TrEMBL record:
It comes from the Eukaryota. GO terms for molecular function: FAD binding; proline dehydrogenase activity. Pfam families: Pro_dh. This is Proline dehydrogenase. Residues 197-482 form the Proline dehydrogenase domain. GO terms for cellular component: mitochondrion. Its EC number is 1.5.5.2. Keywords: FAD, Flavoprotein, Oxidoreductase, Proline metabolism. Converts proline to delta-1-pyrroline-5-carboxylate. It catalyses: L-proline + a quinone = (S)-1-pyrroline-5-carboxylate + a quinol + H(+).
Length: 507
């Protein structure tokens, strides 16, 4: 069985007794993803804290370091150090792309072109697609095929980051498309196994790509109605963790839905078999499978697939199937607490990815059209609080028991708070029960800063032909325009580093 190792870039920054560490590592190294244990256990090897002073002496117990002080020691100011592993050409492209996507009119114009009739003419389409490939695609995607993705992952591995490998398909509408997409996801597992050890943290799956969208809507309607009326029988339903909370929106289902037809039940079984095959392959490869979240119209069905699979495959404090919690939803924290309690009761170790969310405009428009308040928090501050509260809860939970967490955030303050919380809980360096994550091509300063501090950090990396990944790029542009516009922190640091390199080259 393969074992996890510390990325070279992190390893070279850790100073401790090599002889002691070697002897201890032999005794403590665990199988890949065996509860993601900390390879360098605090009980086995005395490592310097992430937040210790330069002389590696801890502050006296009478003068404890405050959370604010510890979080500030996550160094995000030294642009030269943060981008030391990034070539000037890559830095120039990233800076230019981030500046372009920060301009609302530029994003609107690009989306108009992509959806216009101009894209139906061969010459214009070829020109636009070539331009997109050399700019936005190469900045936000891992490549057009497995070979390209492998090269991107290897580069990340060399600089101390990891990759979440994402076969870049979106929705499927029939069984033929679902079967085709499944082959892509299965191939992604094979690609992951062929790459350097520890370089791929997760394989990502979108349930909307392996189960027809219409069926997901039907299943979500039926699950919502059962929540309204517990006597409503769903004969096809498998064991599952709690999906809804009292505050969960149920307005999508306005009337009692008809039971699934025999054909729909057959299609549901096919979808179950697809996910089962993918889960079994991940179990065999010992690579976690992370299920992406979608909009609330189909999220109940996605949670149903996720949690029923987790019950089946997550064993012995070893989460293989991870779910996603979108904390911009008002019911996110309540659902997380209920699901975690249910998992504990059933003895199921759960893995969660926390995100803020990516369907704000869609959710608000749908709720308004049905005469209901938006399920999204009313303010960005409330969303930040929800993310940070959920993050704190999960970190405390995994520090004292089973389970893993991925904190997918581009917010610097959330990163600092979580890093400080992990330190307070004594979780130590390179703890495999927790991981930070950002989108590939975004929040590079935060990614490298967290990695420099000794945390595991992954980048969300979609790959596939440009035309296939185009829906992903368009959705990112539309749903993340606020995030892209707020990328000034990264852009400022990139400008600073490019200026330094130019000055060094001239003088």
């Amino acid at each position: 069985m393969a074992t996890r190792v510390i990325p070279p870039r992190i390893l070279k920054n850790i100073k401790y007794n090599t002889a002691t560490a070697t002897a201890t590592a032999t005794a403590t190294t665990k199988p890949l993803n065996s509860a993601h244990p900390s390879i360098l256990s605090s009980t086995a090897v005395a490592l310097p804290s992430l937040y210790e002073k330069a002389d590696h002496q801890k502050p006296p117990s009478s003068s404890p370091v405050t959370t604010a002080a510890k979080s500030s020691l996550l160094n995000l100011d030294d642009a030269e150090k943060l981008f030391s592993s990034v070539s000037t050409s890559k830095l120039l492209r990233s800076s230019a792309v981030l500046h372009a996507t920060a301009m609302g009119p530029m994003v609107d114009f690009g989306m108009w072109i992509m959806k216009s009739r101009l894209m139906q003419t061969g010459v214009m389409k070829d020109f636009v697609m070539a331009a997109i490939k050399k700019t936005f695609f190469e900045n936000f995607c891992a490549g057009e095929d497995a070979a390209d993705a492998g090269r991107s992952i290897r580069w990340l591995n060399e600089v101390g980051l990891r990759g979440m490998l994402v076969y870049g398909v979106e929705d499927a509408h029939d069984n033929e498309g679902c079967d085709r997409n499944l082959k892509g996801f299965l191939h992604t597992v094979d690609v992951s196994r062929s790459l350097p050890l520890n370089s791929v943290s997760f394989v990502i799956v979108k349930i909307t790509a392996i189960c027809p969208m219409q069926l997901l809507e039907r299943v979500s309607d039926l699950l919502r109605w059962q929540q309204k009326d517990p006597s409503f029988n769903l004969p096809w339903k498998q064991d599952c963790l709690p999906i809804f909370a009292e505050s969960s929106p149920l307005y999508h289902t306005q009337k009692r839905p008809e039971p699934l037809t025999p054909e729909e039940e057959k299609d549901l079984e096919l979808a179950n078999q697809r996910l089962l095959e993918l889960c079994q392959k991940c179990v065999k490869a010992n690579i976690p499978l992370l299920v992406d979240a979608e909009h609330t119209t189909v999220q109940p069905a996605i949670d149903y697939f996720t949690y029923s699979s987790a019950i089946m495959h997550n064993k012995d404090d070893n989460p293989i199937v991870y779910g996603t919690i979108q904390t911009y939803l008002k019911d996110a924290k309540e659902r997380l607490l209920l699901t975690a309690k249910g998992a504990d009761k059933m003895g199921v170790p759960m893995g969660y990815k926390l995100v803020r969310g990516a369907y704000m405009s869609t959710e608000s428009k749908l709720a308004e059209s049905l005469g209901y308040a938006s399920p999204i928090h009313n303010t960005i501050q409330a969303t930040h609080k929800c993310f940070n509260d959920c993050s704190s809860f999960l970190l405390e939970k995994i520090a004292n028991g089973p389970g893993n967490v991925v904190l997918a955030t581009h917010n610097v303050e959330s990163g600092k708070l979580a890093a400080a919380k992990a330190h307070d809980l004594g979780m130590g360096k390179v703890n495999h029960k927790m991981e930070f994550a950002q989108l590939y091509g975004m929040s590079e300063a935060l990614s490298f800063g967290l990695s420099n501090a000794g945390f595991q950090v992954s980048k969300y990396m979609p790959f596939g032909p440009v035309e296939m990944v185009m829906p992903y790029l368009l959705r990112r542009a539309e749903e993340n325009r606020g995030l892209l516009a707020a990328s000034g922190f990264d852009r400022q640091l990139m400008r600073k580093e490019l200026g330094r390199r130019l000055k060094a080259a001239v003088f």
